[in-house]
Amino acid sequence: EALQEAVATVDLINGYDLKYPVSYDFEEFLNVGHRTDNLSLEQINKNAKVFMDYVRSKGYKTSLYGSANYLKTKWNMNNFPNDDTWVAHYYVNSPNYNGNYEMWQYTDKASVPGIPGQVDVDVDYRYYASIKVNVKTSLHVQDIGWMNYVKNGEMAGTTGKSKRVEAMNISLVNSKVGGGIEYKTYIQNRG
């Protein structure tokens, strides 16, 4: 059944450019008529492993979500060496969990403008959704003119030729990012 749910999940997310991992969350509801009633810890861990192994095999990053208590008492974390961990522990300065974790859900009582009601808030220590920005630079060099663009910190200009830089063009390549670029230059004999 865990494999069926993993297949259904992958079918649902197919085609989306996910930035965050697909997370497995097991919530325990005892003796209320759910199919997960009274599962053993061994079976809970097997289900999570089957689910996450399948999702990961399809190219998605995976994580195990749980309260600090669940991560310590329900999950055998040795079963999940290839999965990130998302710990939930509310109203504390840091989670009471000694294992590694990439995200921390620290409250369920936050408010966000435009969203009615209270929401969960997390700290993303991995920066999953960071936008990669590419910067390109071209220099106009004495006796050479405009040189080919270089990007992302590659060396621009010349070395060992004693040619001065007469102008520069620096721009963002990633059109998804707004804003601009700040830079400083050193002018010979002026600082």
| Overall outline | elongated
Average pLDDT taken over every residue: 87
Q: How much of the residues is beta strand, in percent?
A: 25-35%
The amount of helix comes to 10-25%
Poorly predicted spans: none
**Main sheet: which strands, in order across?**
1-2-3-4-5
How does the major sheet shape up? 5 strands, mixed
Give the CA-CA distance, first to last residue: 69 Å
Strand tally is 9
Q: Rg from C-alpha positions?
A: 25 Å
- The SSE string, one letter per element, is HEHEHEEEEEEE
Structural class: alpha/beta
Q: Number of DSSP helices?
A: 3
Index terms:
single chain; 191 residues; alpha/beta; 3 helices
Characterize this entry briefly.
This protein has 191 residues and is an alpha/beta fold.
Summarize the helices and strands and which ones pair or pack.
Elements: H1 2-13, E1 22-25, H2 41-57, E2 62-67, H3 68-73, E3 84-88, E4 103-112, E5 115-124, E6 135-141, E7 145-146, E8 150-151, E9 165-172
Parallel strand pairs: 1-2, 2-3, 3-4
Antiparallel strand pairs: 4-5, 6-7, 6-8, 6-9
Helix pairs in contact: 1-2
